[in-house]
Specification:
By secondary structure, this protein is an alpha+beta fold. It is built from 4 helices and 7 strands, in the order αααββαβββββ.
């Protein structure tokens, strides 16, 4: 009986004894190469999906499909990679830009003005805000420790009802711009 148990319990070692070491190395190498190829191909496909789902208007981009039921796996992966938390468009729309009106990459070495004409603020039923982040979507450090401005920031409209929001390293008072800090 013990001989029978020994024969039943040790087929794996006998099978492994018959496998050539070159075969094992080839299988392991194949698994590693296949895993790397799958990882790279998946990244390329997700990147392509992310670029294809953007809507861009006047240099500002948004994605409205994230969170919608029925999205395929690539869109879900792109949304998860680029938007750690995204609401559906009726709840919130996130616009981003990395360039100025001339198409030049935004830089802390320049001053910028975002101008809204009279009655031209972002349409919404709740609130709007602007948050400055870097390319990795981290908040940009600044001396004022201010990371967002919006409709609840006490922004002062111009005499004609328009609104200018200044993005600059100097404080608005130092730059001769009162009320927008």
């Amino acid at each position: 009986m013990d001989d029978m148990r020994a024969q039943i319990s040790d087929p794996a070692p006998r099978f492994l004894d018959r496998i050539n070491r070159g075969t094992v190395a080839a299988v392991v190498l194949g698994l590693l190469v296949g895993g790397v190829v799958a990882f790279v191909a998946g990244g390329v496909l997700v990147d392509r999906e992310a670029k294809g789902m953007q809507t861009t208007i006047d240099g500002w981009s948004t994605v409205r499909q994230c969170g919608e039921p029925g999205n395929d796996i690539l869109m879900k992966a792109a949304c998860a990679r680029d938007w750690t938390a995204a609401n559906l468009a009726p709840e919130a729309v996130y616009w981003t830009t990395t360039v100025d009106s001339a198409g030049q990459t935004l830089s802390g070495g320049h001053d910028y003005v975002l101008h809204f004409p009279p009655r031209g603020l972002p349409p919404n039923d709740a609130f709007w805000s602007l948050t400055m982040t870097d390319a990795q979507k981290r908040l940009v450090a600044n001396p004022a420790n201010r990371y967002a401005v919006g409709d609840r920031s006490g922004l002062v409209p111009n005499a004609d009802g328009s609104l200018d929001i200044y993005f600059q390293t100097a404080s608005p008072a130092a730059a001769g711009r009162q009320g927008q800090h």
